[in-house]
Amino acid sequence: MPRFLRLIINIVVLGALLLISQQVWAQDWRPVRGGIPFGISGIALIEQQTNRLDFLIVHDNKQKNQGRLAIITIKGKRQPEYFPLNWPNNTELPIDLEALTSIPEKTKSSFIALSSSGKAYHIMSG
Questions:
Q1: pLDDT tens track, the chain, 126 positions
Q2: How many angstroms separate the CA atoms of 96 and 68, rounded?
Q3: pTM exceeds 0.85
């Protein structure tokens, strides 16, 4: 088989695979909120039940009036629900949160959020 024909066949097969992959990815994509201030920079599981997932998320916002924390609830195949949380008044407002992880504890949910400057914030929920 000539090299040119082999190249054409490879390009067609690769193009078909990429098209199929994009269609599969698009089916799994579930937007939560629109706009740059609602971009999610960190996510951690709070609780998992039979047909429900609750996640704590952080936003990498920099302005004073922009959210830093929220909870996303996913129930079955329904659209995710977004619940903004207020940053605690007694804690310095972080700038540019970039990551979030849970800390295993027996009695309550506990998390650490990290800013781009390297500062860590301990977050505890209910």
A1: 567 677 777 676 666 655 555 544 445 666 677 767 778 889 999 988 889 999 999 998 999 888 999 999 999 888 889 999 998 888 889 989 999 998 887 667 889 999 999 999 988 876
A2: 9
A3: no
